[in-house]
Structure formats: C-alpha cells, structure tokens
Amino acid sequence: MKAVAQASASAWVSANAGSGKTYVLVTRLVALMLSGVAPEKLLCLTYTRSAAAEMQERLFALLSDWTLMSDAKLAAEIEARLEMTPDAQNLRLARTLFARALETPGGLRIQTIHGFCESVLKRFPIEAGLSPQFKLLDEQQARAMQADLVRAQINTDDPERRASIARLTRHLAEDAMARLAGDILNHRDKFPANDAIEARLENIARSMDLPDWAFDLEALLRAHAEAYLPDVTPLIQALSQASAKSDRAQGERLESWAERARGGAHASAWPFLESVFMTKEGNPRARLVTAAFAGAHASVAEALIHQADDIAVLRNRLNAAQALALTGDIYRFAADLITAYETAKTRLGVLDYDDLIVCTNRLLNSRSATQWVLFKIDRGLEHILVDEAQDTSPAQWQVIAALAEEFFAGDAAHAEPRTVFAVGDEKQSIYSFQGADPAGFEKMRAHFAEKTEAAGGTMNFVPLIESRRSAPEILAAVDLVFAEPARAEGLMAAGTPVHHIPHRLKDAGYVELWEPEAVETPDTDLQIWEVPDAMPDETARRKLARRIAAKISGLINAPDSQVTPGDILILVRRRDAFVEDMIRALKQETPPIEVAGADRMNVMAQIAVKDLLAGAEFALNSDDDLALACFLRSPLGGVGEHDLFALAHGRSGSLWRSLVAASDSENAAPVLRAARQRLDWLRREADYLPPYDYFARFLSEQGAHAALSARLGVEINDPIGELLNLALAYESQQVPSLQGFLHWLAQGEQSLKRDMDVQTHAVRVMTVHGAKGLEAPIVFLPDTCANPVGHRPQSAGLYFAADGDVLWRANADMRDEYGKELQDRLDADNLEESRRLLYVAMTRARDRLYVGGYLNKRGTPPSAETWYAYLHASLGTDDNKSQDADGRTIWSLGDEARAGPQRNAPSEPPTQSPDVPAWARIPAARGPSAVKKISPSQLRPLAPAASKTQEEKPDEKPTGGLDARVFGTHVHALLEKLPSLPRHAREAAAQTYMARFHAGVSAADCEAICAAALGVLEHPDMAPVFAAPARAEIALVGQLALHDGQKLALSGRVDRYIENEDEIMLIDFKTGTPDASGDIGPALMMQMAVYRDLVARAKPDKKITCGIVWTQIARLDQLAASDLDAALEDIRMGAFTLA
Q1: Residues 275-321: pLDDT tens digits?
Q2: pLDDT per residue over 993-1005, tens digit each?
Q3: What is the pLDDT of residue 753?
Q4: Rounded-to-integer distance, Cα 664 and Cα 659, Å
Q5: Rounded CA gap, 722 and 183, in Å?
Q6: Beta bridge partners of 135
Q7: Nearest one of 82, 176, 4 to 811, comparing CA atoms
Q8: Whole-angstrom distance, CA of residue 984 vs CA of residue 4
Q9: What are residue 195's phi and psi, to 5 degrees?
Q10: % of the chain with per-residue pLDDT over 70
C-alpha cells in the first residue's frame, strides 16, 4: 500500500476481482487528506451512484473511528494502512479529518462522471451555451420525445426523405425503427450532418472497393448482361436438352435471366442469374451441373465455372452497393432525427445523460471559454481519482484528460504535485455496449504515464493480485479456465497471464460442474387432435431450474447448516424465460424458498399491471372487447372461462353491451354484477381523476389491490408501486390525463431496478452485469451453454467500424466482403467480452460455485466457445470426476463438506466503553433559552374547566354516527371554498366536493355536511363573515414573551380574517355547540387571545375583535375583550399546558 499512499505520486492500479478496490481508493483519499490536502480539492469519480455512496460511507466510518482512538491504537492503524509512522501532528490532524470531511463546502466530491459533468455545466451554463435553468430528461421522457420525433420523420412531407425511409423500412423488422432511432441518438457523435454525408459515403465506398458512393446498380448489371448475353445461348440450349432434371432447371434459370435482360429489366433479371450460381442461403453452389453433363459437355461446364467467379465478384459489388445505399438512407434519417432532437431539447431547456458528457467536453475543449473554465476548476482541484477505470468510455476519458492536462502544464503548476489515481481491472470490462473501451484502460495508463514523466512527476504502477474475496478453490478454477492463452484472449493486455493469489488460505472452498440438462424429443408425429401451439411441460431449462432449487433446498435445510437464502446468488447472462422458471422452482420447493425476484423487472409485463391497464384501456374505449375480456378474466373481474364465453359467443354488439344486459337480468350471477360495478367506476372516473388518483383509489376503494393480492400474492406490490410512481412522474411533467398516461407508458419498456445489494434474506436472481461489484457465499451459473457470438443484443442494422464510420449491417447472405470483415470483428469483440463476463461471474463467489447448463431442443452439444466448454475443458478431468448423491456425473474442486460459508460465534460485547478524549467530557456551554414552538390550538388551562363546549368533547357526535373531526374538517373545507362562488352554484359545488372526497362517509352524512355548510353561508347573521373583504385561512405567526423570560414561537391559522378601515374581526369555526350557559371554554379563549395579540401587535392602529361561529347551529358569538385579556395574562404567567 506504500505506492497507493504516496500522496506526491500518481498511480495506476490494476486490481484482480475481490482484491479490495474500494479499500484502496479510501486509503488513497485518507493519505491525501493526511498529507494536508483539503477535502474540497479532491475529485473521486465512480461508475455508479451506489458505488459513490458506499465509498463515502466507508471513508466516514474510518475517519469517525479515528476520532476516538487512543494515540497508540491510532498510530498502529495509520501505520498498518498507510505504511507510515505518524508523528504527533499527524495524529492531531487524523482526528480532525472526519469533521473536515463532513464540513466540506458542498460535500465531498465523490460522484459519478455524469454527476460531476452536471455540476460543471450548472456552474458554467453560459460558457457551455446552455440555459442556466436546464433540467435533465429521465429515460422515460427521452423515450417519449424520441418516439414523437421518429413518427414525425416517418410522416415527413418531403418526398425524397419519404422514399429514403421507405427503402430503409423494407429492410427492417416491424419494431426495429424505434431501436434504430435509439441507437442513432445514443451514438449521435458518430453520424455526419447533412452537408457531410457525401464525403463520409465516399470514404466508405473506397473501403468497399466501389468507384464512388453514387454507384449505379442498374448500369453495373447492364454492363455485365451486355458482356454475357452473347455467350449464354449455347449454354441454355445444351442445358435444356440434358437428361438430368437439375441440369434442365439450371437451363431454365439461365433462360429466365436472358429473357428479362434482353428486355432491359436487369434488376428483376438478376435473381435468376444469381440462383444459377448461388444457393438460397447465399453460398456458392458446390456443383453447377451433374458429373454426367460435365463429361458430355466439358466446354459448357467450364464456361459456367468461369462465369461463377465473375458472378461472385458481381454479387459482392451489388451487396456492397446496396449496403452503401442503405447506409446513405440511415445517414439522412439520422441527420434529420438528431437535428430535430437537439432542437426539441433546446426549446424545452433540457439535456439527456449523454449530453452531460458531450457538453462538458465541448466546454473544456472550446477555444473561447476553455482557459477561463479550466482556470476556475483548476484552482479547486488538486487530485483526481477514478474508480472502475476499465468501464470508462473514451468520451469520459476525454473529460478527465482535459481536467488533468492542467496538472502537468505551465501556469497551473503548483509547488505541491497534483496527481491522477486510477483503479480498474480490464478483465472486468463488460460494458462496451454503453461505450466502455476495454483497451482504453491500458491506453490511458500510457497517456498519463507520458504526461507525468514529461512534467517531472512520478507514476506508480500497482498490481493487486491477492484476492480477499474468494476461497482458494474458486480462484484456482478461475486460473484454470483462463490458463489457455486462447481462452484468455481479451482479458489482459499483451497476453499477460491471469493469476490470483488467495488471501483466505485457511478457508475451504468448493467448485462443482454438472452435466448439461437435456430432454429427449419423442419421435412421434403431431396428431391431428393435438393443440398445435402446446408446449411440452418438460424442458431442459425447467429441469435445470428444478435441480438448482433442490440443491439450494438441500443446502439450506441440511442438519446444522449455516446457509441462508440470502447467501445464494443465481447469475444469468440475460433475463429470459429461465429466470421465471427459476423463481417458480424455488417457490415450489417444500418448504418454499424465499426469493427476491429478478434484479430488474419489466413493469409493463407484470400480470397485475396488465390487468389494471386493461381496465383503464376499456374505460377510455368501451368498444375495446379485448381489453374488457382481459379485465373480466383477471382477478379484478373474476369471470370464469365459461361465463366469458357465454357473454361473447353469439353477441350482436360489443362485449360491454352483452355484459350490461347480462348483469341487469334478474338472475344475473353476483360475479357479473361485481365486475360491472368496478367497470362502471372505472368509466365514470376516467375523465375526472388524474392517473395517480385513478389507480390508487381503484386499488383501495374498489378493492382491486385485495383482489389481485389474493390471487397473485405479495409479488404485486413492487410492480403496482412502480406503476403509481410512474403516474406521479407523468403528472409532474404533463397535463394529467389517463389517455395521455397510457400513451406515455407505451413509448418504451418501464423497468424497475431492485437494489439487490441490500437483499440479505432471500435468494437473488440477477444478471452478471447487475451483479458487478457484488459478491455472495454461494453462486450458481445456470445458462452456460449459450453461444456467446451474437448473444449480446446488437444495434438495429448498424456496424460501428473502428475508424469511426457507421454502416448498414445486412443479413448474412447479403453481406459484401467489407461487411463480412466488420462482422468478424464484431464477433471477435463479442467473444472477448463473453470471456470477461465469465470472469466476472465466477469471481462473485466467496465459498462455493455451482455450474450447470441446459441444451437446446435439438440437444446440440455446447460449442467450443461457450462458458460450459471452457469450464469443462479445464475442470472436466477424470481426477475431478465423481457422482453426486443421485448418481449424476459431476466434476469438482475441493471438499463440499468443509466449504463455507462459516459464521463465527457472535463476539462478546465490550465490557467497557472505548476511551473518550478529555475534551469530549467537557460540558457544552449553555446556550440562550430555547424558543418553544407551539400552535395556539394546543393551549390548555392548567385546571380543567367545569364547563366545556361540544367542540372539546370529541367522543360526542355532531350528527348521525360521524366523527366530529371528520364532520368539522369537511365543513371547514366547504366554508373555505364556497363563499367565492355565486349563491346558485354553491349546492352543486358542495355535492361535487363530497362526491370526490367522501371516502368513508355515508350518503346521509354527506348530505348533513353540505346542509350545515350551506346553512351557515345563507344565514343572515353570517353575511359580514363571508362578504368581502373577508379572507379565509390566514396564517398568523409570531412570538409571545412570558413573564419568566421564555418565548413561545406561535404559528396558526384563523378561519376568517375581516379587515375594515378601523377594525379587524377574527373568526374561528367550531363544529360543536356552546355550553347551555353560553360560556366559551378557556382553551378556545386562549387560542383566540393569542390570535388577537399577534394581530394587535402587527396592526396597532386598529381595533381587534374576535368571534366564534358555531357551524351546527349557524350562530356567531362575540368574545368579550376582558375575557381575552384574562386568557392572555394566564398564558404569560405560564398557567397553561399543551394538548
């Protein structure tokens, strides 16, 4: 750690998995702070927000521990961690670091690169050419905006653009246009503007060996036909007279081509000529004619063979020309889309996440503002730390390099050296689909080494090969898998071997490889009575899921087992059908195994959400029979298959009309009436409630949540909660309509990402990408037989060439030689990333690693480049071979019986508290008297009064069986809202209010509430209370000094505030009735006395009077000034308590 802690030197740390990268970064931060660097001068960039939070948490935990350590213990801690012997000054400084870190202005800068760039742009928006109030688009907002723009591009009025898009869409799948647009916008820096398209296409044409970008296909075919037609007639004649059918078929193809070519239809003629020499798959025919024909007509056969070479060249040029033409169409579509997207964002003053990097790079590298911006940033920055450097993209490195450039140059030179510190592991670079460049780690190491050396500084290269996470057997398996150079290609630069040194030498680990699961396909023909789309219950995938579930059950339930469900992590390459099979298998064990579910959930694919949205879609369109049928068959409708069939079969109108008729009949089934009632509610409220209220109230008031959970279980809570969160997010951005919300949801996949790193009580099922940075005592790898080449989702019809060009990616049979070269490079990149992904997957395990697999339906063995093949080649030796308890073949390393996880007995609590420094025992100086914050309505007299008003007796009911507080709340609300309305509109408004907010209130009580409020408003004695200039719900705030010096901070609201030229009247509404004697309770008198005092001090030139309106009897009582003065004096004397 000495090189890491050397504050004056830069360092590049290459760290194996589990070697303690976070520990190293925290050590570096502490070393810099202990050397005297101010915390605000540090910038630590992490890959994720959770990593930033974890690092800050660990740093604060360490520094807080240091504050209370004895000198001897603190010195030992510092020496062990930093390999330095601290002096007294170091110890004093170490104790202050926690406070200095906490008090850093703006907080420590431990953040993601995107977070840092956002802070820079918010600091320099004008220099960056941005609105000072710019906001960030979230993923859903960006998707919705992009979808609207794509539709606008497709529906353009420009005929040339429409023709270009039509050519493009003919070569794309139905849903691929949106993916293509997303890919274009994610790589917008790689596409040329409209005025640069021709130059870019010209460059690509040279790579394809085409004469120019505007290559004329028809001219090429015409020139070939003119050269070949004179020679083809004898070939056709010879083939047409051949005895073999296949030879005659060849002659017919040649004749079909010749007829069309002579007529000038060269494009339509070409497929016939191509079929003579190529198979349907696009491969050259192994034999053009039969051997007998070749023997009898040697010259014809030779001519065909000679022409086959020309056709291959021609076909390659045609494929290249078509790919180039489609690339031009993509460029034109991209240029218009990017322009429209940038214009839309500028108009709204928003940025997306990619813009944060792009705009910061533009800011730091533009001539006009660079020096000023860098000067301002540079003065607040002395050291840069980069976490997970292997996953940093070239654009992100460009930002870091621009910042660090000032460290090594000219005017920015400091007396104290400034450093760059990066930690990464190129073996774990698995985010190339997000722009990460695996080769960038080594490239940037060389860049900063050169810069450091040129500036006379020091750059330390620190390899961390000791793994503290995994048991020796796990690490041995990893080293064995990647010991073969071919299998390690893409993991380490310059062919460096993969090697780990275990730290846990005394701990036992275990690795077990299973044979792939397979299912024998029955050799029977499909019977005519069988359902054609029925799937067999048994699949290899399900067999593996059940085997893993049984193994986990055995591990957890074994006698004296220390394994818990939270110890187990099941890692998959992608979220496919196996994930659902695995979760189901775990739940079907006896007893069921608790499972946390998948790490990322597609909210819209969840059954409970689909059921709710089906109801909403029907509510907007009652003729949508499919949505209604889905709702009725769901737990929300509860209608069985036979009842639904009876409704649907033979109906004359819509399914809804059939349901209405059936539910209105005298002998209607209760389930139909219940479904009708819910649907009526959905239709009635669809036009009035915002989306959140619509779904929330349907779930609660209409019992939808109970119905769904009764059938589907507690698993519905996460997706339904996320649906409600999405509704709130939509309402914060858009006009809250139900139809708009459903359209907004349909713009893209809505995903819920779970924080799986905090799940400690259940089995976790997640992708390897999602598990990056996590670990578990026991790891299962199930889907190891998948072909890695092409496994990763690819761009929609695009190649990104190494030289920066973007090209159309054609189907395999339509690729030219350049396209094949790009595909080979893409496949090689995918294969290298697949190896790195396997490395990450295996190194998540602490104690045990179980590896399985399943074959496809045909039972095809795993190919040589699959994970399973790698593991079997390295572990599947006879020395490792044995059988499990069920007699199945396994290969293993280590002793399963001895393998962890092992849990130590809980340690005894300390017998005495840690030493506390003397300064911590000194009592703090007594501060000024605290100001007590209260509401005037909390004031109560010390002695209970003999007379109490109805308002002070909450157990009594003002009307019917309704609680007084509920009654009073609604009456108060109506008396606040109704006075501003015309008299004739008040009753309808009151009824509308109660219809919306009457949850739990009966119709009779609703009527009583409305009557009470309207009775008060219409009573002649109340005219001054509600006439102008009366105002409602006026806040009154101030302080009241008591005789003992204590101060009360008072904050309340008076129901009506009536200010005239020389008088102010304060009115409070009370739901109860006054005492028979007419006396006002002392608590109420104290409340009004405080209101009167606050207003009197603010308006000393006006007379202040107070009154109480009893809403049940529509009576106004004036309060005597002497009674109010006496109540205020009681308060000043302290003769009160608080409710």
Answers
A1: 999 888 778 888 899 999 988 899 989 989 888 888 888 888 888 88
A2: 787 666 667 888 8
A3: 63
A4: 8
A5: 26
A6: 350
A7: 176
A8: 80
A9: -80, -5
A10: 90
Per-residue pLDDT tens for 974-992? Answer: 888 888 777 888 888 888 7
What letter represents residue 1110's amino acid? Answer: W
CB distance 152 to 181 below 8 Å: no
* DSSP reduced 3-state for 192: coil
Give the least confident one: 212-216, 478-482, 817-821.
Answer: 212-216
Q: Which residues pair with 466 in a beta bridge?
A: 501
Per the CB < 8 A criterion, the answer to whether 185 and 341 are in contact is: yes
Supply the DSSP symbol for 651.
Answer: -
- Give me the count of residues in the chain: 1139
Single out the residue of 384, 382, 400 nearest to residue 392, CA to CA: 400
Rounded-to-integer distance, Cα 891 and Cα 881, Å: 4
Residue in the structure block whose two tokens are 């293509």: 180
Report the distance separating Cα 167 and Cα 161, nearest Å.
Answer: 10
Q: What is the mean pLDDT of residues 8-15?
A: 91
Residues 247, 732: Cα–Cα separation, whole Å: 72
Q: How far is residue 1058's CA from residue 261's CA, in Å, rounded to a whole number? A: 97
Cα(341)–Cα(141) distance, integer angstroms: 12
1055-1111 pLDDT per residue, tens: 999 998 889 999 999 887 787 777 788 889 999 999 999 999 989 989 999 999 988
Give the DSSP per-residue string, 723-755: HHHHHHHHHHHS---HHHHHHHHTTS--EEE--
Both structure tokens of 911: 């017998």
Please name the amino acid found at residue 212. Answer: D
The pairs formed by 401-408 with CB atoms below 8 angstroms and a separation of 24 or more are 401/444, 401/447, 402/361, 402/364, 402/365, 402/374, 403/43, 403/364, 403/374, 403/377, 403/378, 404/448, 404/451, 405/374, 405/451, 406/374, 406/378, 407/451, 407/455, 408/451, 408/452, 408/454, 408/455, 408/457
Mean pLDDT estimate for the chain: 85
Identity of the amino acid at 57: E
HSE toward the beta carbon, residue 760, CA cutoff 13 A = 1
What angle separates helix 298-348 from helix 217-240, to the nearest 10 degrees?
150
- In this prediction the pTM is 0.73
Indicate the residue type of 642. Answer: H
CA dist 976 and 288 (Å) reads 93
Residue 157 structure tokens:
């009025």
Q: What b/e sequence results for 277-296 when a residue is b if at least 16 CB atoms lie within 10 Å of its CB, and e otherwise?
A: bbeeeeeeeeebbbeebbee
CB atoms within 10 A of CB 159: 8
